[in-house]
UniProtKB/TrEMBL annotation:
GO terms for biological process: triglyceride catabolic process. Disulfide bonds join 51-75, 124-139, 189-238. Residues 29-266 form the SGNH hydrolase-type esterase domain. Keywords: Disulfide bond. It comes from Mangrovactinospora gilvigrisea. InterPro entries: SEST-like, SGNH_hydro, SGNH_hydro_sf. The active site is at residues 33, 259. CDD domains: SEST_like (cd01823). Signal peptide: none annotated. This is SGNH hydrolase-type esterase domain-containing protein.
């Protein structure tokens, strides 16, 4: 009979170990290419090929670090409308992944809405390519307040998405993940990013407007805003390969142009983990 307490203790320890190894909750990651991390290898097993989702993006890294059971439906090119509408035949509405027992949700969206990012980066690049060294903001002359106006108009769409997340997953903690710093705070880095110093400042303002809108929507929508911009200053696409967290127009590592590389995704994951622990 003396063996019984030992056996009970062993079983208790085993159960405790199993409990500690079990996922701490169900985590659904929603978002666009800054969340899915295209070309940051390896590709996430089972993810739609159209979405170019990485197994080393911040949702996967966060889930592994915190012991969360991950459903990652982030998809390159996603807009807020793709929360409720299919993006591709193999990429159904992202909100389909939300369930009543979801405990954690991250939402990284907004940059593609109204084609803001692609128009700003490609459009300004085309305009500025004829002015390799200049302080003038030629792109700002052309677009004016177009981007800031579009971002402001998108605020209600982000707010509606957050409201729907709370309805579908009423017990979940919701985080809105902002965008990291793409460009230096001053100057230029021709030809890595073919922009005049004036338009670098202009586009910095556009990105700050986007993050401010997301932060405001998060505060109003019962979500936590995760600032990935402040920590990434000095690690923009103009920095040397060993320093930068985002790639320039012609990338030199495993990431697509003007997107976070593997190091950038690691730092985004760290910011999300800190927010969740806090």
């Amino acid at each position: 009979m003396a063996a019984a307490p030992a056996a009970t203790a062993s079983a208790s320890a085993s159960a405790s170990a199993s409990a500690s190894d079990a996922p701490a909750g169900k985590y659904v990651a929603l978002g666009d290419s800054y969340s899915s991390a295209p070309l940051v290898l390896p590709v996430a097993p089972g993810a739609p090929l159209d979405c170019a989702q990485s197994a080393r993006n911040y949702p996967h890294l966060t889930a592994a670090a915190l012991g969360l059971q991950l459903t990652d439906v982030s998809c390159g090119g996603a807009k807020v409308e793709n929360m409720t509408q299919a993006q591709y035949p193999d990429a159904p509405p992202q909100f389909n992944a939300l369930t009543p027992d979801t405990t954690t949700v991250t939402l990284g969206i907004g940059g593609n809405d109204n084609n803001t990012f692609v128009t700003a980066v490609a459009g300004c690049g085309v305009i500025d390519v004829l002015h390799p060294i200049s302080a003038h903001a030629y792109c700002q002359d052309f677009f004016g307040s177009k981007f800031s106006d579009a971002i402001a108009s998108d605020g209600p769409n982000i707010a509606a998405a957050l409201q729907r997340i709370h309805q579908l997953s009423p017990h979940a903690r919701v985080l809105v993940v902002g965008y990291p710093d793409i460009l230096p705070q001053s100057g230029e880095c021709w030809p890595q990013m073919p922009l005049t110093s004036g338009d670098v400042a202009y586009l910095n303002g556009v990105e700050k407007d986007l993050n401010a809108m997301l932060q405001k929507a998060a505060a109003a929508g019962g979500a936590t805003f995760v600032d990935t911009y402040a920590q990434s200053v000095g690690h923009d696409a103009c920095q040397p390969e060993s320093t930068r967290w985002l790639e320039p127009v012609v990338p030199s590592t495993d990431a697509i142009s003007v997107h976070p590389n593997a190091t950038g995704e690691q730092h985004m994951a760290a910011a999300v983990e800190t927010a969740l622990k806090g």
